[in-house]
């Protein structure tokens, strides 16, 4: 990969990094994305959506969300269920809960005006230093650096920095380096910040970086030494535990029973299927509510979270008649199975609801 790339000292990159990046972004970077605006509300929304989510999906969700919540005031005033429903399918739902809380904080503490200082933006729930810096750079041309996963990849490769970037010491070194690389001219901050994002996303990709198209190639340590596959240093291996759950697919005609999860924890505040310890408990669930049949369980499948693997056994139950006690239960509701997947439900539950709609 490094064969035809001229050798240069990485030091060269320190002073030329920003000018190279800005020139490259203007010529080859991404332009015309709907969030390339100076309205901090729109930039903030895009930054939160883009954490953990591909641009392609965000391009779908972003306009829908903005059409319903065009400004921070409308988002702050909305019921949480409406926010969750529009987020449904994007995953990492704490982002949506924090977005909602942050909008309320902008209204209550900043008089409805989005704060401009990085330290103040960083006080909003769900906003870390890198996101606050992106808003500061894009909307207020502040000389603040972002440092997300893509930028860490570019910097560790360009400057040959070993060690897992999630380690505190390595991360601190990367922040200091990223700050030193900022352009002197603050008016270049939007193009520079977009350039960092674009280079990491489109050229210096995880699997196959396109070094020949990269403006840093002649000074990049990883390209020169053929180390793009080993930088950034991967996270030290650790096994994650497996948990099992049985998800009850209780149907009554073309209706399905969903319950709202507690506000905190995994899938907090979303509608979901009841969970049982075992398929045997489905008999008890049914007996407590009416007459019907426990049907054969569907094949189990896995959903992987950061900290554990959840093995889900879907257990269908058909209720033919209610005993009357079910109606008094709180926290749950019968929903039309053909529309249930459109409510704010977690991704694996949506998948099961779509299968159920086909099966009954
Ligand atoms: S694309 Fe290649 S040359 Fe450019 S920063 Fe990444 S590894 Fe270095």
Bulk shape: elongated
Unreliable parts: 1-9
Oligomer: single chain
Radius of gyration: 25 Å
Helix content: 40-55%
Q: What small-molecule ligands were found?
A: iron/sulfur cluster
Total helices: the number is 15
Structural class: alpha+beta
What is the beta-strand fraction? 5-15%
Mean pLDDT: 92
List keywords for this structure.
15 helices, elongated, alpha+beta, 360 residues, 14% strand, eight-stranded mixed β-sheet, binds iron/sulfur cluster, disordered N terminus, single chain
Architecture overview:
The protein is an alpha+beta fold and 360 residues long. The chain is 43% helix and 14% strand. The protein is built from 15 helices and eight strands. The chain has helices at residues 11-28, 40-50, 55-68, 72-77, 80-87, 94-109, 118-121, 129-140, 149-158, 168-181, 189-203, 221-224, 281-287, 337-340, 347-359, and strands at 242-252, 255-260, 271-272, 275-276, 290-294, 301-304, 309-322, 332-336. Strands 1, 2, 3, 4, 5, 6, 7 and 8 form an eight-stranded mixed β-sheet that branches. A hairpin with a 4-residue loop joins strand 6 and strand 7 (309-322). Helix 2 runs antiparallel to helix 8 (129-140) and helix 9 packs across helix 11. The radius of gyration is 25 Å and the shape is elongated. The structure holds iron/sulfur cluster. Iron/sulfur cluster is lined by residues 154, 157-158, 203-204, 209-211, 214, 216-217, 220, 222-223, 228.
Short account of what is shown:
With 360 residues, the chain is α+β, with helices and mostly antiparallel strands.
